[in-house]
Design goal:
mainly alpha, globular
Amino acid sequence: MCRHRGRRAPLGEGATVTDSPTPYGSDPPGAASLRKSLGVVDGFAIAASSTAATTSIGIGLGVTAGAVGLHLPIIMLLGFLPILGIASAYSRLNRVEPNMGSGYVWVGRSLSPWLGFLVGWIGIVSTVVFLSYTTTVTGSALLQLAGEGGLHTLAGLHLDPDSTAQSTALGIAVLIAVTFTAITGIRSAANLQKYLLVFEYVVLLGFCGYGLVVGPHPFSLDWINPFTIPSGQQLAQGLLLSVFCYWGFESSFSVNEEVRDPQDASRAGLITLFTMLGLFLLGSFAFQRVLSLDELTGHGAQGLTYFGDRLADQPLAALPLIALTFSAVASLQSGVIPTVRGMFAMSRDRTLGPLWTKVSPRFGTPAAGTVAIGCVAAAVAVLSLVIPKVGDLILASVNAIGVVVSVYYALTALAAARFRGLMRESPSEALRAVVLPVLSAVALLGLGGYLCWSFYTSADHFEISPDNGWFMLFCPAAMLLTGVGAAAWAKWVRKSPYFVTGRSLAPAEPAVTEAA
């Protein structure tokens, strides 16, 4: 006589093999169906595309310069330091418990299920906002490209890259296409990302390197002196904007159940982070060598296009714009992939509905969830039309995401300090595992809190504008408050055991048949 033993994957220290069913009676459909086919290079391609260095340099540097002036290099370096502590936390936690839910799983287990759910929710809503504005950025880049090719009108319509309506309509078409490629398989998506990244980085290195040498503005020690930034508010905003630029390195951890070795996800994340540091420093120095402060802040979504025009004639001047278009397309695709997999982990715990655990038998991917998140992002992109200019939309989105991501990262870092099993190591390893993440968490929470207070005190009325402090405070507050409401629904309506045990359902392994 035979029986089946349901075996759970390791939960870290103290995990056991048990005959008892999962907290829900059985593993949800598809819990063991994701295909393990990725390596370090694939994880790097997904994380690097999600971080989108070309988009961050081409658009984010101008936004950040609006806050800190000609101090981009030091801001990018200072912003890297807490993120390095966060990356250390991710790497250590991933070694103890690899799970595509990452921060949602780790924070829920070591701090609080409510905070864990909030981390997962922040990851969802911030990426949806990112996808919605990147949809618009992609459309704007394509319209700029059309203009460079001589196409300025279409069917009597004047094509305007700074129009959110035109840019969003075109970007949604691209979002539909990349959502389809994300459905057909993470391997094909990663392969596409590799080719796009190679082209982007060659163009970035070529133009930024050339600009670094021939730029008309001399190097200045003031560029690396944070004490000459006019105010603490500008410093805080600049640092959070730089944190936003690094955001996305952790995407490699969201596919750690699809890599052949979970440590490949950690390696990919760290390689991505240091690669981004090098590119951001190169881009910061090059932009300030070539462009004045007014030129940096005055071109918004068209900053990289203007940079290319200052350094070369057509058709070479169009290469940075093509690279920006590729980066935007790649970041759309790579934004969909980790978000859906995080929701897969949450659905596995019944903190979200069953839609997100449905795995396509043909492609081995959470296809239904991928389509759903693409539709939600498109809907939010349409709602964002209330902000008529692409540059204003970018500023509002980036500030909101920067605030909530600081909370997201800080809670994950604090989870690393409390997570069981990490302190049984040498003093130097304990230092990296606890002290650095805690310092990073405190720094990010302090920056976010200070910036929110400055938003609150800078206005006396509400207006939908990136210049209105109350509106800038409302956006991240809405993201966090909806997370509290969704957590309450999961606890008391869905009755998810996650809120009772604090443990996420581990990735299931195939059942093992044993002789009685």
